[in-house]
Amino acid sequence: MARLARPTNGRMIGGVCAALARRFGMSATTMRVIFVLSCLLPGPQFLLYIALWILLPSEKYEDKASAAW
């Protein structure tokens, strides 16, 4: 499994779906369809997406941080 970080390539809005798809070995399109379908159900999907957008590091920043160690 890949590390959970928002990729610099292949993102649409924030890269959250692309990051989750890479982490679980799925295509980004499949993850985006799952997210859109989940929005039809009641729940805090948009808040979770925004929280992950804020909390997940971007790949370019993660590479610099790991290179410093």
Indicate the mean pLDDT: 85
Oligomeric state of the chains present here: single chain
Shape label:
globular
Helix count, per DSSP? 4
Radius of gyration, taken over Cα atoms and rounded to an integer in Å: 13 Å
What is the H/E order?
HHHH
Helix content: 55-70%
Q: Indicate the low-confidence ranges by residue numbers.
A: none
What fraction of the residues are assigned to beta strands by DSSP? under 5%
* Straight-line distance between termini: 22 Å
Main sheet characteristics = none
Beta strand count? 0
* Structural class by helix and strand composition: mainly alpha
Lay out the secondary structure.
Elements: H1 16-24, H2 28-38, H3 45-55, H4 59-68
Helix pairs in contact: 1-2
